[in-house]
Specification:
Layout (H helix, E strand, L loop, with lengths): L7 E7 L7 H11 L4 E7 L5 H10 L4 E4 L13 E2 L1 H6 L4 E5 L2 E5 L1 H11 L8 E5 L3 H12 L4 E6 L6 H10 L4 E6 L6 E2 L6 E4 L14 E2 L8 E4 L8 H8 L3 E3 L1 H17 L5 H12 L2
Helix pairs in contact: 1-8, 1-9, 4-5, 4-8, 5-6, 8-9
């Protein structure tokens, strides 16, 4: 039981929020850690973001998970912000302490830590497919820890130009550029790629949908990651595993980023296996 009169509470805010497994996963994590904490989920339209944050501050919520469309809009309400979140413009985790909001991005950090289980990220050539919120967070995190080169493949490279310039200006990264994915042609992936990451919406609920990539030149030394978690066995994961590549699937990434938020809020270690089992149960995987 909690030793103070107010219940320890964290929450998730976003819109739409239906079908999100975060509440179920984190409630299981609290149980596994024997913490008398609760996790709530709130559907919050963009116009009500400020009011929702005011409420979270007043009620003393320990932490807030931020889902779209609020991950950039929340930044003006923070008192402090981590470097990866600031550079990417994407916050997905807030800790409240002494009435102040501290903003983080655990998505990029989660992937970085999973990649580091196979060795250092420093100096590696990284290719990210996609230019959305997760791609930006991953690029910022990997640049900060010393990736040697980051290449971003997307439909409209001009939309990511500000980020590529910022990464070179504000991190140890010296080579960062964006390339266009053309309409019907496939982008050739070869042995020069050491890390390949899919950060696009391709994959959720359509595991056999392929990316506009030619993987014939993909070699087994490449680490391949995919952010799609429902289901985690995507076209890219299957192709990479058939070629003997080390892989990081989206379900593992989802659990890791939530576990990092849990640890930021509570200071306790998260039971990642309990969290993964909770997501698998929730999504009937």
């Amino acid at each position: 039981m909690t030793s103070h009169p107010q219940q320890d509470v964290c929450c998730l805010i976003g819109q739409p929020i239906a079908g999100n497994p975060t509440q179920y996963m984190l409630e299981k994590a609290f149980d596994a850690a024997r913490l008398d904490w609760r996790f709530l989920t709130f559907e919050v339209p963009a116009l009500d973001l400020e009011g929702a944050l005011r409420g979270a501050r007043i009620f003393g919520f320990n932490g807030i998970m931020i889902a779209p469309p609020h991950r950039d809009a929340v930044i003006p309400y923070l008192q402090e912000i981590g470097d990866a979140a600031r550079i990417s413009g994407q916050v997905n985790c807030i800790k409240q302490a002494e009435g102040k909001f501290f903003g983080y991005n655990t998505e990029g950090r989660a992937l970085r830590q999973l990649l580091e289980q196979t060795g250092t990220v420093k100096g590696l050539k990284v290719t990210i497919v996609g230019a959305g919120r997760i791609a930006r967070a991953i690029a910022a995190e990997l640049a900060l820890v010393g990736a040697g080169e980051i290449r971003i493949l997307c439909r409209r490279p001009e939309k990511i130009e500000n980020l590529t310039q910022t990464l070179v200006a504000e991190t140890p990264l010296t080579h960062c550029f964006a390339e266009a994915l053309a309409g019907d042609s496939l982008y050739a992936i070869n042995g020069d790629f050491q890390v390949l990451i899919n950060a696009t919406p391709v994959g959720p609920n359509q595991p056999n949908e392929r990316l506009p990539l030619d993987l014939d030149g993909l070699e087994k030394h490449t680490i391949v990651a995919d952010v799609a978690f429902n289901p985690p066995s995507t076209w890219l994961m299957k192709e990479a595993q058939e070629r003997g590549c080390r892989t990081v699937d989206g379900l593992t990434l989802l659990v890791e980023q939530a576990a990092l938020a849990f640890e930021i809020w509570t200071g306790a270690s998260a039971d990642r296996q309990a969290m993964r089992e909770a997501v698998e149960e929730f999504l009937v995987l």
